[in-house]
Specification:
By secondary structure, the protein is mainly α. The protein has six helices and four strands.
Length: about 180
């Protein structure tokens, strides 16, 4: 029900099938700019992918994390699930940090963790540090760069509001006539 079998004539192995877990990020377009590229491409028939049944999905992730506590992919995917599907930010923080301990050079996980830190704690310095590590670790990953740019845009907007940025712009019109933009 929740799995989608795809047969492709271009696959050279005879009788090969690929299974995609529907609703787990492959087709859901999860945020963080990753397009779901890493989400559970390993899931086979009958594993997870409850077709919208979040209880089955969560049980599948828990099982995979228990069976593979040193696997950054499982830890990161479970963290992403907690963050995006369950809105459990504290739980997601725990599993992202565990994934980073397992693989401190995974740019995607570093980037997602940085985004979470910013959203959950508004800790600009910590988030910036993790985004910078993510960009170094995944210098070719446009999704990591886009997430970092979005963060910088967000931080700049917050700083502009705090400093009264728009109140410092001189008026262009003064008593019905255009004021000079040049100063002597």
């Amino acid at each position: 029900m929740g799995n989608l079998a795809i047969k492709d004539d271009d696959i050279r192995e005879s009788g090969s099938q690929m299974y995609l877990a529907k609703g787990l990020g492959v087709d859901a377009g999860f945020g963080c700019g990753d397009g779901g590229g890493r989400n559970l491409s390993h899931v086979g028939p009958g594993e997870g992918g409850g077709g919208g049944d979040n209880h089955d999905t969560e049980e599948y992730y828990r099982k995979m994390v228990v069976e593979n506590p040193g696997n950054a992919l499982f830890l990161g995917n479970y963290a992403r699930y907690l963050y995006q599907s369950k809105q459990d930010l504290q739980g997601a923080e725990e599993y992202y940090s565990r994934a980073i301990l397992v693989d401190p050079n995974d740019g995607e996980i570093l980037s997602q963790y940085a985004k979470l830190l910013w959203e959950l704690h508004q800790d600009k310095d910590r988030a910036m540090s993790y985004f910078e590590r993510a960009v170094q670790a995944a210098s070719e990953d446009s999704h990591v760069h886009a997430a970092y740019a979005s963060f910088l845009w967000d931080v700049e907007g917050d700083e502009d509001e705090e400093e009264g940025y728009y109140s410092n712009i001189p008026p262009l019109f003064n008593n019905g006539t255009m004021a000079s933009a040049a100063t002597a």
